[in-house]
């Protein structure tokens, strides 16, 4: 459930009509609902009451400091994958003792940042990284808590670009080599082994791969303990999928039941790293129709939002529900044949010079006209986070709503702003 509903005929974020925000900030813009973020965080916290976990929100899903702060205020920790995300988590007030740092290519500088911040643990993904981390820790005269991320060789059944737990993927250390790698790590100065981690992918709608991966992790942890390693913490990663177009998605409590089945009665401290399941439905992208174009074979609804604002459809073929902000009059979406005749089948596209700049194809939509406001749903995760400046477009504003108030939490970053960071080379300037 989210808090983007029609109220008095206008789609609203909590108690604020999206059209009011559009008036104030222009389009396109991202809009986040505090109540939805809170609801989703609470759903996880409630679901895991019987099998306690540290919820480390995956900052990559939506790194806006207002989002991270809203969650931190509820007790969330953070899963970060870069020095930038670490900085954001700390700026937003996340307790460093609840921050885990993942990623296959952390630089020495980033590792040093993590050590300086005294975070909970670094999830190490390779032996060269272990060596680098050991060196950095020694140079600082300190020790760092480490979990090795193991690759459990499990197919999460999700899009190939966001599958991470298969043997051929670049992530983690092959689980069959864990015994050997932990033995090496245990001898390295500055490294204090505290746990193991997995993350098998994202937008996972079937719980079976989680169960299989967690059973494998549990067996591995028992083996590592038998080897004499002090495995006290297991990081289960993120990846719980959500509904974009009415798909059946497991709830946090379905997921918690699997975690409980596998780890109930064991004495590990557990960490989970949900991103999408918390932020996805807490955000929408609001856009205005620029033109309706009658093409040779179809009708195009051309929005002022584009693939640079929301990459997911062009990158993963993802389909986000798209709706008008003004509620369609009753019957416009009716299923009966007469009505269907009058309902347009359209492609919703952006203005960018690529055919891939298409949000959705061949959808039924109530009549829309140039100037209408449209909303692209479920854009709170991996939306603004992945935006680019392609075609010299802007990074669009981000707005957060709470009750009947809204606040711009990131201003539009436009070409004027970017041009202040560009310059001509001296050989041209001098001429
Ligand atoms: N932990 C780690 C180590 C991760 O790599 C990820 C996501 C997460 C947690 C959070 O996963 P989530 O709960 O959000 O599924 N851009 C893609 C998704 C990429 C996910 C990358 N890793 C998309 O838009 O679908």
Key phrases:
single chain; 431 residues; alpha/beta; Lyase, Ornithine Decarboxylase, Chain A, domain 1; TIM Barrel; 2 domains; 8-stranded parallel barrel; 14 helices; 21 strands; 29% helix; globular; binds ligand LLP
What layout of secondary structure does this protein have?
Layout: E1 4-7, E2 10-13, E3 16-17, H1 18-25, E4 29-33, H2 34-47, E5 53-58, H3 65-72, E6 77-80, H4 83-91, E7 99-101, H5 108-117, E8 121-124, H6 127-139, E9 144-151, E10 173-174, H7 178-187, E11 191-197, H8 208-226, E12 233-235, H9 252-263, E13 269-272, H10 276-279, E14 283-294, E15 299-303, H11 312-316, E16 322-324, H12 337-342, E17 344-349, E18 358-365, E19 373-376, E20 398-402, E21 405-410, H13 415-419, H14 426-429
Parallel strand pairs: 4-20, 5-6, 5-13, 6-7, 7-8, 8-9, 9-10, 9-11, 11-12, 12-13, 15-17
Antiparallel strand pairs: 1-2, 2-3, 4-14, 14-15, 14-19, 16-19, 17-18, 20-21
The chain binds ligand LLP.
The site of ligand LLP has 23 residues, from helix 10 and helix 11.
């Amino acid at each position: 459930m989210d808090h983007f509903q029609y109220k008095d005929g206008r789609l609203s974020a909590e108690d604020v009509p999206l059209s009011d925000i559009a008036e104030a900030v222009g389009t396109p813009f991202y809009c986040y609902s505090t109540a939805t973020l809170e609801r989703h965080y609470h759903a996880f916290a409630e679901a895991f009451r019987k099998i306690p976990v540290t919820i480390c929100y995956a900052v990559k899903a939506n790194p806006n400091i207002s989002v991270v702060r809203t969650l931190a205020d509820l007790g969330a920790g953070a899963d970060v994958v870069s020095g930038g995300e670490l900085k954001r988590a700390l700026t937003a007030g996340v307790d460093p003792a609840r921050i885990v740092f993942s990623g296959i290519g952390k630089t020495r500088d980033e590792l040093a940042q993590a050590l300086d911040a005294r975070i909970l643990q670094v999830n190490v993904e390779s032996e060269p990284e272990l060596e680098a981390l050991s060196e950095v820790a020694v140079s600082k005269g300190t020790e760092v808590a480490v979990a090795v991320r193991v690759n459990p060789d499990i197919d999460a059944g999700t899009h190939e670009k966001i599958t991470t737990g298969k043997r051929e993927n670049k992530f983690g250390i092959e689980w069959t080599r864990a015994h050997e790698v932990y033995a090496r790590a245990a001898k390295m100065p500055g490294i204090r082994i505290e746990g193991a981690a997995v993350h098998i992918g994202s937008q996972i709608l079937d719980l079976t791969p989680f169960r299989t991966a967690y059973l494998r992790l549990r067996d591995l942890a028992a083996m590592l303990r038998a080897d004499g390693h002090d495995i006290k913490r297991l990081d289960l990663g993120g990846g719980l999928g959500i509904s974009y177009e009415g798909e059946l998605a497991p709830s946090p409590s379905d997921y918690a039941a699997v975690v409980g089945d596998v780890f109930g009665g064991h004495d590990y401290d557990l960490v989970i790293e949900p991103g999408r399941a918390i932020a996805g439905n807490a955000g929408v992208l609001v856009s205005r129709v620029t033109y309706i174009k009658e093409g040779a074979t179809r009708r195009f609804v051309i929005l002022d939002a584009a693939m640079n604002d929301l990459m997911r459809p062009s990158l993963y073929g993802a389909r986000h529900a798209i709706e008008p902000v003004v509620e369609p009059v009753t019957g416009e979406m009716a299923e009966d044949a007469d009505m269907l005749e009058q309902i347009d089948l359209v492609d919703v596209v952006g203005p960018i010079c690529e055919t891939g700049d298409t949000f959705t194809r061949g959808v039924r939509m109530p009549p829309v006209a140039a100037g209408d406001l449209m909303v692209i749903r479920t854009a709170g995760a991996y939306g603004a986070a992945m935006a680019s400046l392609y075609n010299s477009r802007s990074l669009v504003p981000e707005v957060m709503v709470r009750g009947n108030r809204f606040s711009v939490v990131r201003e539009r970053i436009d070409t004027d702003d970017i041009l202040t960071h560009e310059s001509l080379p001296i050989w041209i300037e001098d001429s």
